[in-house]
Amino acid sequence: MLLYLRLFKESFSFAISALRNNKLRTFLSLIGVTVGIFSIIAVLAAVDSLDQSIQSQLSGIDKNTMYVTRFSFGPTSVPRWQRENFPQTGNDDFEFIRRNVSGIEASAFALFGRGQTIRYKDRTLENINTTPVSNEIYEIDNLKLFKGRFYNETESNTGAQVVVIGFNLAKNLFENEEPVGKVVRIYGRKLTVIGVLDKYGGLNMDSPDEKAYVPANFARRFMNTGSKGVLTMIIIKPEKGIDINAFEEVLRQKYRRYRGLKPDEIDNFFINKLSGFTDIIDGIISTMNLIGWIISGFSLLVGGFGVANIMFVSVKERTNLIGIQKAMGAKNRFILFQFLFEAVILAVIGGLIGLFLVWIGTLIGSAMADDFKFILSFKNMLLGFSVSTIIGLIAGILPATSAAKLDPVEAIRTGF
To answer: Which residues form the MacB-like periplasmic core domain (predicted)?
Structure first.
């Protein structure tokens, strides 16, 4: 055992000495591995950060939440021309479902908001995501207030001219002024700000931080919600512990009867579940990870070839020394470990530099983006270290093997 420890120690010392004596060559070899590890870990860290941001924003929403509307959130076998002729899910549909389908904890009626211009005094913000929705959205989306309040059922039913705005929106529009009680213009109409939502963070454009909520019945007065108008939907949050599949089937059958559909006719609506939407997000995240690996793999391939090439050159330069070592009794495994360690150390140093650059990048990125936090997980750090070690082993095995197999007499003669 002590013999092997000594072998490892001496091989390690030889490898470090060789790297120090060829600083320029070592530096050039490091670049390829550094770029490869940096590319992989940077992509994985960015994707993980995006995934965490999205998941944190969806964490307060029940994944069994359903969205009944005329279009599908995901792929569907229903032809586009047929989908475009589906009737709207109007306010009457919403009232029917709310009163006739049991097992509903909360439900809301919403219009698909478009980017609106919001004005306050001489300040103007354009393309603000303004969502006309009934008051139940506060419970369904588990919204939290920073100050003020959300509009109540009476204000929702009567279409009161009130608005609740996101944290960033309030900050950008009112700066240091108190937002609650101020009058703003949206849709060219005056609305009173009655509440400001808590800060959620994240880069998601649909984040509550950047949104404005108004009663759906207020927007219905002037927005076209007919078959060719703005899209509408019914949002349903089932009771906890309920059989979701059974609930969905009951909802579908009752809504079909309400719309007068015959048994042989297809549904002229879609019941979209948030769980299906999160599955799509997970699929996108997985695809982004795969693409990152493929792109970064080319960098690693170049880095691996660079290390292997440098190691072959190193073997060539030290052929005479290898012959002398073997003539003095050095075993093949000692020569093998000597060059293999050199390749691994070279790759690991490159990997550590790549990880360090990613870490610096996450700090800079998080500092520049107040609403988004870049993360470098221990899993990704361990992955980067492991990949760089494997690259070193693969790139060094052939040069190390060729060095170990050299005949001592021929090696010494070649040196002269």
So the answer is: 26-253
Q: Of 3-7, 144-148, 259-263, 267-271, which range is least confident?
A: 3-7
In this predicted model, what pLDDT tens digit does every residue of 248-301 receive, in sequence order? 999 999 999 999 999 888 999 999 887 666 666 777 777 777 777 777 777 777
Whole-number pLDDT of residue 315: 78
3-class SS letters over the chain: CHHHHHHHHHHHHHHHHHHHHCHHHHHHHHHHHHHHHHHHHHHHHHHHHHHHHHHHHHCCCCCCCEEEECCCCCCCCCCHHHHCCCCCCCHHHHHHHHHHCCCEEEEEEEECCCEEEEEECCEEEEEEEEEEECCCHHHHCCCCEEEECCCCHHHHHHCCCEEEECHHHHHHHHCCCCCCCCEEEECCEEEEEEEEECCCCCCCCCCHHHEEEECHHHHCCCCCCCCCCCCEEEEEEECCCCCHHHHHHHHHHHHHHHHCCCCCCCCCCEEEEHHHHHHHHHHHHHHHHHHHHHHHHHHHHHHHHHHHHHHHHHHHHCHHHHHHHHHCCCCHHHHHHHHHHHHHHHHHHHHHHHHHHHHHHHHHHHHHCCCCCCCCCHHHHHHHHHHHHHHHHHHHHHHHHHHHCCCHHHHHHHHC
Tokens of 338: 């000597």
Total-model pTM: 0.63
Q: Which residues of 254-288 are buried (b: 16+ CB within 10 A; e: fewer)?
A: ebbeebeeeeeeeebbbbbbbebbeeeeeeebeeb
Q: What CA–CA distance (Å, rounded) separates 247 from 327?
A: 82
Amino acid letter, residue 65: T
Confidence of residue 226 (pLDDT cuts 50, 70, 90): confident
- For residue 118, which amino acid is it? I
Residue 317, amino acid: E
- The per-residue pLDDT for 59 is 58
